[in-house]
Design brief:
The protein has 4 helices and 7 strands, in the order αβαβαββαβββ. By secondary structure, the protein is of the alpha/beta class. The chain has a 7-stranded mixed β-sheet, sandwiched between helices.
């Protein structure tokens, strides 16, 4: 019986770790709060799915209430708000930066791309050059910093 336990215990622990990591890592579920009519929000969700995330879309009528609940400042506002593993993802943040956030796990509320810059995920437009935009890391104390820049 002890031999069985010594063999089985590491296997069970490894399995539990993988389940824990799946919920915490790049395969985690993104809860996407958006209005029903917003097509670019759905396209951002598709971008996230294409890059390994599960996406659960939730259509809401009072999006400002969601933003307030998750401490998204007006200066960072965009057309949708998403949550993954306790982090807020505001607007058209590229999946690469969300993956980086989940790996680095900074002490922050989350990431934001304010507005709806052309060329950001979900805002691609044929024949139009992309806008320059920053991905902002925002913290509970109100501090912001540029997490990544796209040109």
């Amino acid at each position: 019986m002890k031999k069985f336990t010594l063999i089985l215990l590491p296997v069970l622990l490894a399995g539990a770790f993988m389940l824990f990591r799946e919920g915490k890592g790049v395969n985690g579920t993104v809860t996407l709060y958006k209005t029903e009519s917003c097509g670019c929000c759905a396209l951002w969700g598709d971008h996230m799915k294409e890059n390994g995330f599960r996406v659960q879309s939730v259509n809401v009528e009072d999006l400002p209430l969601i933003k307030s609940q998750y401490q998204v400042e007006r200066s960072l506002d965009s057309c949708h708000t998403a949550i993954i593993d306790g982090y807020v993802i505001e607007g058209h943040v590229p999946s690469r930066e969300v993956k980086r956030l989940l790996e680095e796990r900074p002490n922050a509320i989350g990431l934001a791309v304010s507005g709806m810059p052309i060329g950001s995920p979900g805002m691609e437009m044929d024949g139009h050059p992309g806008d320059t935009f920053d991905v902002i890391l925002f913290r509970r104390d109100g501090a912001h910093e540029v997490y990544a820049s796209y040109h």
